[in-house]
Amino acid sequence: MKTLNPLISIIIPVYNGDRYISEAINSVLQQTYNPIEIIVIDDGSTDKTAEVVKSFGSVLKYFYQENSGTATARNSGISLAKGNFFAFLDADDIWVENKLKIQMEIFNNNPEVDLVFGQVQQFYSPELDENIKKQIYCNPELMTGYIPSGMIIKRDAFFRVGKFQSQWQQGEFADWYVRATELNLKIINPPNLVAKRRLHKMNKGLQQRQASQSDYLRIIKASLDRKRQQKKEN
């Protein structure tokens, strides 16, 4: 029997995110969809992240691990998740309040779909001064939300792809998404705004741009190698 409102497990990895994590969690608590479970994986933070997260009490589950990287933190959350669906939120991003409702309605109307994204809008974090803003371009238009904070996926579909690979410094999600497309997962990307991506001085993609470019090239090569191997086997 189909569950009318299945449980969604929301996994939030965080490393030294005490400045933004509260706003991220509140954006989940304000969702118009229920039921949800919130799992926060603290990836070895040395700031006040633990104190901030624990202040929310029993509305979420908090777990600490030694610093091992974002991919490992996401995987730790997955191993604890009980939901029929998985959603991810980066600790510095924000969901719009009807994000989950929009996406779950798409699943309900399209039972063959595996994965739903949505549109994402970037914004400058309020503490940035004008000089920093000039160095970071913020596209004012909605963008296709191919980022963790924009997605929701069926549990079984996620495990068909497999967990996030920890060898990537920056490209763990890009690698996962490439593998998902290779398996021809059924994906819908509606025009609705679902998440807001914060731009700030410590964005990993901005801080480690060279590593990101290197990872993405290696991810593309790995995908091409898999396709060549598959052709040989067929």
Description:
The structure is a single chain. The chain has 234 residues and is of the alpha/beta class. The protein has one domain: Alpha-Beta Complex (Spore Coat Polysaccharide Biosynthesis Protein SpsA, Chain A), CATH 3.90.550. 38% of the residues lie in helices and 21% in strands. Helix 7 runs parallel beside helix 9. The longest helix is centred in the last third of the chain and has 25 residues. The radius of gyration is 18 Å and the shape is globular.
Main sheet attributes: strand count, strand direction, barrel closure: 7 strands, mixed
- Count the domains: 1
Order of helices and strands: EHEHEHEEHEEHEEHHEEHH
The count of strands amounts to: 11
What percent of the residues sit in helical stretches (DSSP H or I)?
25-40%
Mean pLDDT: 89
Number of helices, where a helix is a run of at least 4 consecutive DSSP H or I residues:
9
CATH superfamily label: Spore Coat Polysaccharide Biosynthesis Protein SpsA, Chain A
CATH C-level category: Alpha Beta
Strand content: 15-25%
- Main-sheet strand order equals 3-2-1-4-9-6-10
**What are the low-pLDDT stretches, counting only 5+ consecutive residues below 50?**
none
Tell me what the CATH architecture is: Alpha-Beta Complex
Radius of gyration (CA) equals 18 Å
Query: What class do helices, strands and sheet pairing give?
Result: alpha/beta
Summarize this structure as a short list of keywords or feature phrases.
11 strands; alpha/beta; 38% helix; 234 residues
